[in-house]
Amino acid sequence: MNTPKILVIGALGQIGSELVEELCNQKGKENVIASDIRPENEVEIDATYITLNVMEKERLFEVVQKYNIGVIYNLAAVLSAKGEQNPMFAWELNMQGLFNTLEAAKEISHLTQIFWPSSIAVFGPNSPRIDTPQYCVMDPNTVYGISKLAGERWCEYYAEKYGVDVRSIRYPGLIGYKAAPGGGTTDYAVDIYHYAVQNKPYKCFLREDTMLPMMYMEDAIRATILLMDTPAEKIKNRSSYNIAGMSFSPEGITESIRTYLPGFECTYEPDFRQKIADSWPMSVDDTDAKNDWGWTPEYNLDKMTQIMLENISRKYPQTSSIG
Ligand code: AKB
């Protein structure tokens, strides 16, 4: 069987840049097209790249036809903290971008699979906060969370009404060293490593005891491709799956960093993002993902800290005290 052509939308973002690399490795570089809104002449990426704004439905349809696309990963989104600065734009991008890809899958027969990321932001202050179940009260209070919850319902609707093979994961906070995160409440957990390797103190925008679900990027990419490679009959959930990796607080990650850099200092000055974090789970129950498609995480906090510090220190050869 021929490998279908894959289009990654939002390929220059935190998840997109790592996903494109892994898809090229696993599915063949000739089968992957990376796209984002930046002009082609400004982008350096080791893959075929085209400029594409997911809000432009006609252009998206044209690209899907032209390149005979069989699979789309639509990662374009405004995240939780940034979304609160411009709620209407966040709603438009997060919803219209999803509709355009779902409509393309409904209308174009060779486009047979869609991946769309959801988030732990779909939960809210009245959701259980420990081992948050797959199905429970969901009352998100950020525009990002509202758009993700509405998007999940639309994914299930398109799957049931039109037979669209759409699959989704509720990502926890994602932590990687290759690309910068883009305006989320969990971004501190990437920034903190950059300060630590430069021997700088870090001022955290969340309280020290704010426990949140998190995941090392390699686990997240593995989960994403595993979900997409699972035979359709095993995918019982067409809204979005909870997946768990690890849970920690700013205090916990600071302790983990101190095992390598004992002098590292972190101070705490909570801002508007504290309220967002306080409405999210501390940990999630991912039994359904484990049972349906065999999800298991491989990274814990200390293993991740070691990899993050080693790799980020290479970005700061002048100041780093690691390695
Ligand atoms: C955010 O903080 O907005 C994201 C997320 C948890 O979806 N990282």
Kindly summarize this structure in a few lines:
This protein has 323 residues and is α/β, with parallel strands linked by helices. 40% of the residues lie in helices and 15% in strands. 48% of the residues are buried.
For the record, give the distance between the C-alpha atoms at the N and C termini, rounded to a whole number.
46 Å
Mean pLDDT across every amino acid position: 97
List the secondary-structure elements in sequence, H or E: EHEEHEHHEEHEEEHEEHEEHEHHH
Distinct small-molecule ligands in the complex:
2-amino-3-ketobutyric acid
Just give the CATH class of the largest domain.
Alpha Beta
The CATH topology of the largest domain turns out to be: Rossmann fold
Number-wise, the strands total 14
CATH homologous superfamily name of the largest domain?
NAD(P)-binding Rossmann-like Domain
Poorly predicted tracts of residues: none
Q: What would you call the shape?
A: globular
How many domain units?
A: 2
